[in-house]
Amino acid sequence: MLIGAIVIMAIIKFYKGEMLFRLLEVLMISTSSSIVFYAVLRALGNDYENATLFAVALGIAFAIAKFFLPKLKNAAAILATGGVGVIFGISLGILPIIIMLLLLSVYDFIAVFKTKHMVKMAEVLIKNDLAFTVSASVKEGKPRFTEKGERNRIDLGTGDIVAPVMFDVSALSLSPMASLFIFIGSIVSIVLLMYFAMRKKVILPALPPITLGMLVFFILGRLLGFY
């Protein structure tokens, strides 16, 4: 997340075109979504070589489709973050992920409220309608997160979606119930965050409340003796 933000901010500062952003998007979608396709193909009984070949082909095809069909933005973002989240989830234990989420939450808070570079980055990503956020239209009179003249919408960064996925996947090693409690905590947090952002018409760092919600529900499930 931090490295990605640095790369994107450097591009925003020194590059004024659009094609480089599109190429980065294609690279992100193709590599991340191919992980999901591979997992599905393996689950369906395909061997390693066939699953890898078809997963890469499907990932590239999906990325190209998004390039020409902007309406695939949300689907591409969700699929890509799913792949990244699973990789982190199976690679790291619960404690390292909790520490990572806490550190990233602090960074997210500073990046939105202090340095504000995350806000600037979000504006560029939204302006170019890139699959680095999941977007939803909101009713007239709600917060306007895009440039003047565009329809009202609210966006959630893909990094904020990766966090629940990787915590969920990692928690499976402890118990399916732990994963369920974390999932419920993330959903409750995201719903409350979106509601507050729309009502107050503000741009907020999403990771701190999402992390807090997941940890509260994770601890709650533990205290109730589910795992």
Report on the biggest sheet. Answer: 2 strands, antiparallel
Helix content: over 70%
* Content of β-strand: under 5%
Strand order of the largest sheet: 1-2
Order of helices and strands: HHHHHHEEHHH
- What does the overall shape look like? globular
Report the end-to-end length measured between terminal Cα atoms: 30 Å
Structural class: mainly alpha
Mean pLDDT: 86
The domain count comes to: 1
Task: Supply the number of helical segments.
Answer: 9
Number of strands: 2
- The parts where pLDDT drops under 50 for at least 5 residues are 141-151
Radius of gyration: 18 Å
Write up what this structure looks like.
This protein has 227 residues and is mainly α. The protein has one domain (2-223). The protein is 73% helix and 4% strand. The protein is built from nine helices and two strands. The chain has a two-stranded antiparallel sheet. Helix 8 (176-200) packs antiparallel against helix 9 (207-223). The model is unreliable at 141-151 (pLDDT under 50).
Descriptive labels:
two-stranded antiparallel ribbon, mainly alpha, 2 strands, 73% helix, 227 residues, single chain
Summarize the structure.
By secondary structure, the chain is mainly alpha-helical. 73% of the residues lie in helices and 4% in strands. The chain is built from nine helices and two strands.
